[in-house]
Each structure stands twice: as C-alpha cells, then as structure tokens.
Amino acid sequence: MHQVVGLSGRYATALYELAVEEKQLTAIEKDILSLHQTFVESADLVDLFSNPTVPSEKISNILETLTKDSSDLFKNFITLILRKKRDQALPAIMVDALALIAQSRGEKKVYVASAQKLSAAQKKEIEAFVVKKHKDIKKVSFEEEVQPDLLAGLKVRVDSIEYDATVRGAFDSLRTTLKGN
Q1: What is d(CA 125, CA 82) in angstroms, rounded to the nearest whole number?
Q2: From 4, 21, 54, 62, which residue has the greatest number of CB atoms within 10 Å?
Q3: Residue 76 pLDDT class (50, 70, 90 cuts)
Q4: pLDDT, tens digit (0-9, with 9 covering 90-100), for 16-36
Q5: Where are the beta strands (DSSP E) in 69-172?
Q6: What is the distance between the alpha carbons of residues 71 and 90, in angstroms, rounded to a whole number?
Q7: Higher pLDDT residue, 154 or 37?
Q8: Where do the structural domains in the chain lie, given as residue ranges?
Q9: What architecture is the 6-103 domain classified under in CATH?
Q10: Of all helices (H) and strands (E), which one includes residue 40?
C-alpha cells in the first residue's frame, strides 16, 4: 500500500476526503491527473516549484493558468496550498492523492522489470497472478522497466513484496546456495 504520510499525506488525505464528501472524486482525479501530467512533461516546471527563490506570485500565476479549466474544489485547494506556502509539496501531494483514489477503487500499481517489453497477454497473466495473491487488489496498473541484464523472465513488485522469476535471480540464488551463505 502506498503510504501517505507527512505533510503531503495530510494534504492529500484532506483533498481526497473532501472530494468524497462533495461527490467530486472523479472530477478531482481528472484535475490532478491533468496537472500531474504537466509536471511529468516539464522538468523546468518541477525545477521552478522546487526553487525556494521563485516568488510566490509567479508560482500562483502559473498554477492559475494551469488549473483554469479545473473544478472549483481543486482551484480552492490550490489556493489553500499557495496561501499556506506549501507549493513545493504540490507534486508529492498529487502523487499521494492519486494513490488514495486508486486504493479506494482497489487499484494497485505494480512494478515489473523484464528482459524484454511485456506483451498484452503477459500483462494479463501478471494481473491475474497479482489479483490471486493479493485479495484486496481488484485492478492492476503497470510501471514497466526493461532490464536486459535480467537475461529472461521478470520481477514483479507489489508494495514491498517482490516475486523474482528471472534467470539472473535463479543464478544469484544458485550462487548463494553454493557459497553456503
């Protein structure tokens, strides 16, 4: 489970709970995803938000432009973030809020490392495996990484549990067994 802790967790939880209360969870998710995607696509924007010397007015103007089509609830939340001078935490708040929304739907992001890009059929098999092993998960989204040094097979990580079905993992296990440690 994604842990929402600290400052970003508190703000994300507040936004999530308010969105549920106001029956605006879908709209808030759309707003967060839109703004989050802008951050993902722009390293300059991330740098700007992490720079404490950038005037609050400039940050406020940028966020106002980026959220002009967002729901009133999300705009008000952004205003609160700015007023409390928490704009540097905004990227982490968005990640935490998206995780809370996904958790509420029984969705889980699974990290998969494989020697080659996964096919649609392989993804379905992995999803079935994860859902079978973790009863609280209803839907799986993937974060994939191709690692040719794995030789063949894949690693699947759900939270802190890793399932290693790679040739590299088998070699490492055999080496450890042969060493006696």
Answers
A1: 44
A2: 4
A3: very high
A4: 999 999 999 999 999 999 998
A5: 107-114, 139-146, 153-158, 161-166
A6: 17
A7: 37
A8: 6-103, 107-179
A9: Orthogonal Bundle (1.10)
A10: helix 25-41
